[in-house]
Amino acid sequence: MNDNRLQPHLEGDLLKLRPLAPADWEELFAAAADPLIWEQHPASDRHKEEVFRGFFDDALASKGALVAVDRKNGKIIGSSRYFQNEIGEMEIGWTFLIRECWGKGHNREMKRLMLEHAFDFAESVVFLIGANNIRSRKAVEKIGAVLTDRSVPRIIRGEMVEHVVYRIRRAQS
Question: How many CA atoms lie within 13 A of 87 on its CB side?
Answer without folding.
Answer: 4
